[in-house]
Amino acid sequence: MARSIVAVLEIGTSNTVVLIGEAMEGGRVRVLGKGIARTAGVRKGLIIEPKQASAGLASALKQAEDAADVTVGEVLLAVSGSHIAATPGEGRLPVRATDGKVTRDDLEEIRELARETQPSGERAMLHTIPQFYRLDDMDNLPNPVGMRGKQLQLAMLFIHGQRARLDDAQDLLRERTIDMRGINFSALAAASAVLTPEQRGHGVALVDLGGGTTNYVVYRNNVIVSVGSFGVGGDHVTNDIAQAFSLPVNKAEELKLSDGCAVIDPQRSARRIELPASVVAAAARSISVKALHTVIEARLRETLGLVRDQVGPELRHAGAGLVFTGGGAYLPQLDELAARVFGMRAQIGEPLPQYIENLRDDRLRPAALATVSGLLIRNAQMRDADTASGPMISLVDKLKKGFGR
């Protein structure tokens, strides 16, 4: 049997990442090649300088292709940014069977009716998500087939993005003669990599902290109930540090990584950080750790508050708490700040080893690879559910070893 080789891509504000993986039985994935390059020409998840963004894409592709010994012909793409939005939809249908029982044909028909309410025009659909059914006065039904009733309803969630912004990404791929065979919202992809079925069942909020965006998805009773994306991320924290202390951006980033904390750390707050004259282009000076932490906490508190305000009442149902992914997930004491903002426990979400293997990389920590890992996993699980459909992504094998095309 031909091997199913899949390529996935995320053009993030900070990094462009390509993974090439092989889908295996049971919905698992083995990573064959990785490519990671610093991104330029992308701001808040949006491509603003195509030539610069293309250079990062070329570098990441070559690294992954060389490691996997294949040439990428098609990719699955992850996207984020404030242009991503979610809107509800609904379908209504009278139960037509003479015995009043709901049939599978009813479910297919009502899904089609619900899709007729989806956005169009300048918006491009990314995901159509069935949430739950209603049958007369019974709500939150996962599968009403065989139940008796008169009126069937289906609640859906449509996730969509601005068509022009998605076309910008597709244009980059076309320049490299690469086809885009699918687009996924990044937070949904990350959720596929790090969340367990138990977490989804108990209710959980995943927050992906990227360089230029913060994305979230909330599950309640295994159902996606809320998603969103903001054009605010880790780069904004870095810029705040640079402005507050009159530092170059690269030095501000170093300080964030070496001495940063999501809250004011009393054990370190009295310490001062020496800044040599070569760094500040002036006389040598020092800044207090407490001041640094104050700047970081202020921006992160505001960012997390945006998520809290959007998700609102759904947080009451997040029994499994918060899960952070993305590079910003590793900021010390982020869980403590989340407890103050959301009033619930939080943890770092890394791709689960039962879903994916051979992922580790010295350049990015696992939570920063959650989105691309999730793209591979989602594809493998879809393939495992319907092997007759064949691989979603075709690649040209340099060594002609018979990889799936």
Strands side by side in the biggest sheet: 12-7-1-2-3-20
What value does the average pLDDT take? 90
Q: Which stretches are poorly predicted, pLDDT < 50 over at least 5 residues? A: 387-405
Largest sheet: 6 strands, mixed
CATH topology of one domain: Nucleotidyltransferase, domain 5
Helix percent reads 25-40%
Please state roughly what percent of the residues sit in beta strands, choosing from under 5%, 5-15%, 15-25%, 25-35%, 35-45% or over 45%. 25-35%
CATH architecture of one domain: 2-Layer Sandwich
Q: Regarding CATH, which class of one domain? A: Alpha Beta
Ordered list of secondary-structure elements with their pairings:
Elements: E1 4-11, E2 15-23, E3 29-38, E4 42-43, E5 46-47, H1 50-68, E6 70-72, E7 74-79, E8 85-94, H2 104-115, E9 123-135, E10 138-141, E11 151-162, H3 163-175, E12 179-185, H4 186-194, H5 197-202, E13 204-209, E14 214-220, E15 223-230, H6 234-245, H7 249-259, E16 272-275, H8 277-280, E17 285-288, H9 289-311, E18 322-325, H10 334-342, E19 346-348, E20 356-357, H11 370-385, E21 395-397
Parallel strand pairs: 1-7, 3-20, 7-12, 13-18, 18-19
Antiparallel strand pairs: 1-2, 2-3, 4-5, 6-21, 8-11, 9-10, 9-11, 13-14, 14-15, 16-17
Helix pairs in contact: 4-11, 6-7, 6-9, 9-10
